[in-house]
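Re: the request from the purification team.
They wanted to know what the chain is likely to look like in 3D before they choose a buffer screen. I agreed to run a prediction and write the result into the notebook, where they can find it.
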Amino acid sequence: MKTHDFYYDLPEELIAQTPLDRRDGSRLLVLDKETGARKHMHFYELPQLLRPGDCLVMNDSRVLPARLLGRREPGGGACEVLLLVDRGEKTWECLVRPGKKMKTGAKLIFGDGTLRAEVVEELPGGNRLVRFDYEGIFLEVLERLGKMPLPPYIKAELQDPERYQTVYSKEIGSAAAPTAGLHFTKELLDQIESMGVRLCYVTLHVGLGTFRPVKEDDITEHEMHSEFCMISQETADVINETRKRGGRVVCVGTTSCRTVESWAEEDGTLKASAGWTNIYIYPGYRFKVLDCLITNFHLPESTLIMLVSALAGREHVLDAYREAVALQYRFFSFGDAMFIG
């Protein structure tokens, strides 16, 4: 298949720049993966689509306030550092700007000087290894000085950083939010659990590679980025029991989907697992665990719209997207949602 097979026309004004006042007030496009039939609801009506005996699988990763704005020493020129991967010993792999001014040995200062850094290595592809110098706990320093690393298509300033976190976020480490989960409130989760749906959690730390475009014409030639993910034994047990009893596994977001599909045995059973995954799901893939997917709308020609197409069929998905555009749904991270089942 060709990358252009997954293109759809999206007016820029439909890219949501800010979250709605009410998390679960988003619109919800319901797509039947077998027939392509569609209906339109709101996210707070999600319990109507779930059944007692189902399980809901959510990614509890929390976004690191990983964007640091500072200045270079000497001279005081502005700089920006985006933390990507913790390499240990106070050293992180980072994206930096301006790259031409951030060579090995460059010294940086952030905030009031309580955080300083030095570029210690230039990596192939343009990233840098940056060693930080600070007192105390790095995460506390970041909470004070760091900003949320919003996706490149969001130009508006985020007033409340917690709106780019799910209400169940816990494990710090993502460079971007698992956005399908942004629609949930604690009250909605309580309502879902009270109707006999099991709630369970996986962790996948979302990397910036999730926004990397597919540049190859043939989708099979795209090299998928790697992300770290974990499944606890408790979650594995819930999913295994749900499947054994005939319930549905409903994944919240492509990250939860990729996590369970990465570690599933051929028969769909899971056990406690942790490691890096570069699973690439596109049409022709046979899902081992997932039955239904809650997801936001994805970029044209992206690996994520390919994943959704693997579940519901490319034509069904593109027809649904075209209808969403016509009905002026809100797209991407702060946008509306789909239920595919």
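For the purification team: The CA atoms of residues 14 and 330 lie 5 Å apart.
Please add any questions underneath this entry.
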